[in-house]
Amino acid sequence: MNAQEKIITRLNQNLHICVGLDSDIEKIPKHLLNYNEPILEFNKIIIENTYQFAAAYKINFAFYEKYGAKGFEIIKQTLEFIPDNILTIADAKRGDIGNTSEMYAKAIFDELSFDAITLHPYMGYDSLNPFFSYKDKINFLLALTSNNGAEDFEKLKTIDGNFVFQHVIKKTNEWNKNKNLGIVFGATKIEELKENINSFYDLFILLPGVGAQGGSLDEVVSVFNKNKMNNYLINISRGLIYSDDTINFGNFIKKIIIEHNELIQKIDI
Amino acid sequence: MNAQEKIITRLNQNLHICVGLDSDIEKIPKHLLNYNEPILEFNKIIIENTYQFAAAYKINFAFYEKYGAKGFEIIKQTLEFIPDNILTIADAKRGDIGNTSEMYAKAIFDELSFDAITLHPYMGYDSLNPFFSYKDKINFLLALTSNNGAEDFEKLKTIDGNFVFQHVIKKTNEWNKNKNLGIVFGATKIEELKENINSFYDLFILLPGVGAQGGSLDEVVSVFNKNKMNNYLINISRGLIYSDDTINFGNFIKKIIIEHNELIQKIDI
Fold first, then answer.
1. Which of A50, A62, B84, B209 could form a disulfide with B213 if both were Cys (CB 3.0 to 4.6 A apart)?
2. Nearest residue in chain A measured CA to CA from B147
3. How many other CB atoms sit within 10 Å of the CB of residue A69?
4. Structural domains of chain A in order of their starting residue, each with its CATH number
């Protein structure tokens, strides 16, 4: 199954939650500290309890790289717990000159076998194309991000009246020859989502920011429903994986993701 | 010695070459393949032969991450070969929401003990501030990069008549309260360098693109000399480290970097 088949299968089952594995030793349930690899055990339990209900998993590289070489091993072992028919996203936000991006693409797609990656668009086409050339993978370019700093550069207005992030969306569509591109759009930016959703076409949309960052699941889903679009993934990290710290946290998280899915089903336009 | 002291000491000795360790198993001298860790041996020989003449070392993460956990170990071991009084730059081009950037900062500055990092500005202030808060480190924000793709977004013109990259330079100056910021500016963009150098003030300038990418050492140095500025590092990677593939490549590279330094000394305004 290539990345497109994996994601489309789940989207067609009305599954839209991307589980963000921002796994932090200081926040995981304390009883896990008795294990040899507490974070790996945490990820394993999260995955076991969510894989039937999740549309994708997103691994936030920062939380693993801080452990150096060991962190890389934990990423690899975590990926082994994720069933092969579910999309895995490397939230690594890469982007560099061509020959360097080639190396990053090898690291993420070949060495680690991720299905998808997040990319910084700043350096433009030739910094991204080495990723785009993996036709069976999905590349999510940062467009409008969920944080306040989005105002600094992403929302600079250009002389044609468009914001910088709107240029990124436009170019991403132009570059989408292999139907393997998507964008990251902050779930915290509902007004901008409403105003720009008609420019998304067949890009895959990854929306972070629900939960800890204040974005609303209902509002995001309503906007997509209203536009009869289902090509979106709503990432939830902290708001889901740390929702319980007891020995039964896995069951609790299962309950929460099921509730999220039920909410998504129920939301009327 | 903090990062600022390291870099200023070398700059004041008129040393400006940053040696880029884009070390690729397919390009290193073939005899090194007999070693257990060919890339580590390659880096060691490069460092032994250049440390008296280099202003800094830049490690391009992509070339190491493609080896996963092992790559991280090679980075760590390479750093041990670099004398403690020379600036080390993690060319990792990071940038993410605040709590994630905090983790990346820990990975690069605490776990790996680099002196400096390259950052993607796209997501704005709160994505960068976790790095800025390390006052004894140096953060290089991408402004105008050396590749063709710089035209796509970096050179979008905004309604105030400035390009996006000029906004990045302006903001980086505003954010430089701790005198720990710099920018990346492509050595391939000489006209833009001339036009913008007056906006650099006391930022540290890292210029990639000399050599394989076509930038000219002479031209870059002339522009800085003309403006009586010495706060610049010229990165050379492929053009230096692969300049010889014999068993004596170390000596050859030493000769080349000395020649570069002599050229820099000689260049008249």
1. B209
2. A97
3. 18
4. 3-266 (3.20.20.70)
Query: Measured between alpha carbons, how far is B153 from B163 in angstroms, rounded to an integer?
Result: 9
Residue-wise pLDDT tens for chain B (269 aa)?
999 999 999 999 999 999 999 999 999 999 999 999 999 999 999 999 999 999 999 999 999 988 888 999 999 999 999 999 999 999 999 999 999 999 999 999 999 999 999 999 999 999 999 999 999 999 999 999 999 999 999 999 999 999 999 999 999 999 999 999 999 999 999 999 999 999 999 999 999 999 878 889 999 999 999 999 999 999 999 999 999 999 999 999 999 999 999 999 999 76
Is the Cβ–Cβ distance between B128 and B171 less than 8 Å?
no
The minimal CB distance from B66 to the residues A106, A127, A152 is found for A106
Q: Which member of A66, A99, A159 has the closest CB to residue B103?
A: A66
Q: Exactly one of A27, A70, A76, A93 is catalytic; which is it?
A: A93
At A204, list the tokens: 């895959």
| Pure H helices in B125-175 | 125-132, 164-174
B147 to chain A, closest Cα gap in Å? 6
The angle, 0 to 180 degrees and rounded to 10, between the axes of the packed helices B249-266 and B38-50 is: 40
Instruction: With CA atoms as reference, report the closest residue to A47 among A59, A61, A34, A57.
Output: A57
CA atoms within 13 A on the CB side of A20: 27
**Distance between B266 CA and the closest CA of chain A, angstroms:** 31
Contacts of B158 in chain A (CB under 8 A): 156-159, 164
Using the structure block, give the residue that is written with the tokens 């936000």. A93
